């Protein structure tokens, strides 16, 4: 699997081309923003030791193609991570499916970077794994994420009541899916 590729404005790297220091800086810088939309990680998450172990697990999962992780950077600033994407629970047939998640540095929202990075990472994953279905969950009040899903060709599939623990309570989510018509 390629460790780095480009889209129009971005450099996209897999876990093999990322350092624990980059991860720690990215997640620490965006902690308050991400905690509004993602499960609580705990203090240990924001340590170099945790990020190093996490990176090692990511690479092992990518070696087995049970998960895939992508991080993106502006071409004009190739050392500053501005977002990440993950494809977890990659399952072989008869499911041929995965669960997709993404985030972006709050300061870089509203420029189409996340959509561009997600589109490129989906294409990359589909060229490297035999995937028919990609699922994603979005908070109902996260309009920006809903728009990303729609621009990527995902369709709203359902509503999950109290499905994911975020900010101390189980929050409702919208379930989206993408079907790979070229499967």
SSE blueprint:
Layout lengths: L3 E3 L3 E5 L5 H10 L1 H4 L13 H17 L3 E7 L2 E15 L5 E8 L8 H16 L4 E6 L4 H9 L3 E12 L2 E11 L4
Parallel strand pairs: 5-6
Antiparallel strand pairs: 1-2, 2-3, 3-4, 4-5, 6-8, 7-8
Helix pairs in contact: 1-3
Description:
This protein has helices spanning 20-29, 31-34, 48-64, 113-128, 143-151; strands spanning 4-6, 10-14, 68-74, 77-91, 97-104, 133-138, 155-166, 169-179. The two termini are 19 Å apart. The mean pLDDT is 95. It has an eight-stranded mixed sheet with strand order 1-2-3-4-5-6-8-7, with helices on both faces. With 183 residues, the chain is an alpha+beta fold. It contains five helices and eight strands. Helix 1 crosses helix 3. It has a single domain (4-179), classed as Gcn5-related N-acetyltransferase (GNAT) (Aminopeptidase, 3-Layer(aba) Sandwich). The chain is globular and about 35 Å long.
- How many independent structural domains? 1
Question: Architecture, CATH level 2?
Answer: 3-Layer(aba) Sandwich
Taking the alpha carbons of the first and last residues, their distance comes to 19 Å
Radius of gyration: 16 Å
Low-confidence stretches: none
* Tertiary shape: globular
Strand count, sense and barrel status of the largest sheet are:
8 strands, mixed
Which sequence of SSEs, written as H and E, runs from N to C? Answer: EEHHHEEEHEHEE
